[in-house]
Specification:
Largest sheet: 7 strands, mixed
Number of strands: 27
Helix content: 10-25%
Length: about 450
C-alpha cells in the first residue's frame, strides 16, 4: 500500500514539473496568427509579411498617383513599427509610424490603404513599400514595373444616366452631370503639401470628388462628383474653389449634344442620383417607442463596422477612393437582400451610407434593417430610421422644407428614445395635441383642488 502511494506521489511531482517548465503561449503570439478567407496566416519567417489585397495597378497612369490596399503581418509577438515608401531606391515618405500614432498598436495583422505619388510627371519611377516591426525585422514589396503618366489620358465611358438634357432657345442641349473640368493655378501652390496633386486632392475632399485625369500641360484636371443639376453646378464649384485656397481658378461643365450620341443605361448596384425629398416620401405613422411621427418611408441609413483592431490607421481608414470602394462593394452586397439600393450622397459622410427602398411602414423598415444587421454584422454595426423634422429652434417651418434626422434603431425594435428625440418628427398639430395630453394631469389636479375649495365654501358653517 505504501509503495502505491509512493508511486502516485512521484507521478504528481513529475506532472507538476512538466506544467511548470512547459512554455506558455502569450496573447501576442496568438494575435499574430490572423484568419483570412477561412485560413490562418502564421508568420513563421524572421521578417514581416506584406500582402497586396488590391490588384497591382497598371504602369500607365491617368493621374500622377495610384492607390493600393495592403496588409502587413509582423513577426510573432511583435507589432508594426514603421511603414514607408521608397521611390527609385530612395526614401520618399512615411505612411505610418508607431511613435507618432495616437493609439496603441496591438500585435497582429493590420490592413491599410495608401496613395503613391509620382515625384515628377515627365519620368517613370519605381516604387517600393517597406515595413519594419518592433523587433527591427524589415520586409519590402517591390512593384514589378515603373509607373509613368499617360500623355493623353482617356476618361471613363459615359452612360445614359450621366447625361442631363435641357432646352435653351428651343435647342436641346446636354451636359455630363457628374464631371467638372477645372483649371488650376500652380502659383497658389502651398508648400505644406509635398506635391501639387496632394493639395488638389485635399481641396476635393469635401465632396469625395475623384480625380479622373490631369493635371495636363495646360494645368487642367477632370474630376468626378455625385450627380448634380444645372443649378447645383455653381454651388459645387464655389465650395471647391473656396476650399482650395486659390489653387483652382475656374471650372466648366462638359457639354454634350444628346442628339449625336447613343449611350447605354448603367448596369450598377447603386443609384447614382442626389438625395431629394418629395412629399410622397414623407408619411406619418406609429414609430415603435416614439408614438406618431413623420418619417421617410423609403430610406434607411447604415453605419459601417470599423473594428479598429484590424486597421493600421484606425479612424483614418479608409483614406483613399479605392479603400472606400471596398466598403461600398460590401454594402451593395449586404442591402441587396432587402431589395435596397445604395444612394450616392452629394455630401458623403463616411462611414454612413443611405439605402433607398420601396415604400414601407415604420415596422417594415425596422424589420428590414434588423435583417441586414443580423446577416451582415461584419459590414454594418448600426441602422437608423429617418424622421422628418419640421421645426427649427422649436418653431415650425411654414414653407415646404423638410429636415432629415436619422435616429438609431435599437436592438429591441424601438427607435431612439423620447428623451433624445424630443419633438423631432412631430407636426405642429401633433405637438399641440401632445402638449394638451401632457397638461391633463395638471388640469385634473387643478379641478380636484377647485372642487375641494368649492365644497369648503359650500359646507362652511354659517
Amino acid at each position: 500500500m505504501e509503495i502505491k502511494k509512493k508511486r502516485l506521489r512521484n507521478k504528481v511531482v513529475v506532472l507538476v514539473i512538466i506544467l511548470l517548465f512547459t512554455p506558455k503561449i502569450s496573447h501576442a503570439e496568438t494575435n499574430s496568427n490572423t484568419e483570412r478567407d477561412g485560413q490562418t496566416i502564421i508568420n513563421m519567417e524572421d521578417k514581416p509579411i506584406i500582402e497586396l489585397l488590391s490588384e497591382e495597378p497598371g504602369a500607365e497612369l491617368n493621374v500622377p498617383f495610384f492607390e493600393i490596399i495592403y496588409a502587413i503581418t509582423p513577426t510573432t509577438g511583435s507589432f508594426i513599427d514603421e511603414v514607408f515608401v521608397k521611390v527609385d531606391g530612395e526614401f520618399d515618405r512615411y505612411l505610418f509610424r508607431s511613435i507618432t500614432s495616437s493609439v496603441m498598436i496591438e500585435p497582429g495583422r493590420k490592413i491599410a490603404d495608401a496613395r503613391f505619388f509620382l515625384p515628377t510627371e515627365s519620368e517613370a519611377h519605381r516604387f517600393e513599400l517597406v515595413a519594419i516591426d518592433s523587433t527591427g525585422a524589415m520586409a519590402t514589396y517591390s512593384f514589378e514595373e515603373p509607373f509613368y503618366m499617360n500623355e493623353s489620358p482617356g476618361l471613363p465611358a459615359l452612360f445614359l444616366e450621366d447625361i442631363t438634357t435641357y432646352e435653351a432657345d428651343g435647342v436641346k442641349k446636354g451636359f455630363v452631370n457628374n464631371r467638372i473640368h477645372l483649371e488650376i493655378d500652380r502659383a497658389a501652390r502651398d508648400e505644406q503639401f509635398p506635391t501639387l496633386t496632394e493639395q488638389l486632392l485635399d481641396s476635393l475632399i469635401t465632396r469625395e470628388a475623384q480625380l479622373l485625369a490631369g493635371p495636363d500641360q495646360n494645368d487642367r484636371v477632370t474630376i468626378e462628383v455625385a450627380p448634380f443639376s444645372f443649378e447645383e453646378f455653381h454651388q459645387i464649384l464655389f465650395e471647391i474653389r473656396q476650399f482650395s485656397s486659390g489653387l483652382i481658378k475656374r471650372g466648366a461643365l462638359e457639354e454634350i449634344d444628346p442628339t449625336t450620341v447613343s449611350l447605354d443605361p448603367r448596369d450598377e448596384k447603386h443609384a447614382a442620383r442626389p438625395m431629394t425629398i418629395t412629399s410622397d416620401m414623407v408619411q406619418t405613422g406609429w414609430v415603435p417607442g416614439l408614438f406618431l411621427r413623420k418619417y421617410q418611408a423609403n430610406l434607411l441609413r447604415f453605419k459601417f463596422t470599423l473594428s479598429e483592431e484590424n486597421y493600421l490607421l484606425h479612424k483614418y481608414f479608409p483614406s483613399t477612393d479605392l479603400g472606400r470602394s471596398m466598403f461600398y462593394q460590401r454594402a451593395d452586397d449586404a442591402v441587396r437582400q432587402i431589395d435596397g439600393i445604395r444612394v450616392i450622397d452629394p455630401l458623403p459622410m463616411f462611414p454612413y451610407i443611405w439605402v433607398e427602398l420601396d415604400e414601407n411602414s415604420p415596422n417594415e423598415l425596422i424589420e428590414k434593417a434588423q435583417k441586414v444587421m443580423r446577416e451582415s454584422a461584419d459590414v454594418f454595426d448600426q441602422a437608423e430610421m429617418v424622421l422628418i423634422n419640421d421645426f427649427l429652434n422649436g418653431e415650425p417651418f411654414y414653407e415646404e422644407v423638410h429636415r432629415q434626422v436619422p435616429v438609431v434603431i435599437n436592438e429591441n425594435g424601438t427607435v431612439g428614445s423620447l428623451s433624445s428625440v424630443k419633438w423631432i418628427g412631430i407636426t405642429p398639430t401633433m405637438k399641440s395635441t401632445y402638449r394638451t395630453i401632457e397638461s391633463l394631469p395638471i388640469i385634473y389636479l387643478c379641478f380636484i383642488f377647485y372642487v375641494y375649495l368649492w365644497n369648503r365654501v359650500r359646507f362652511r358653517p354659517k
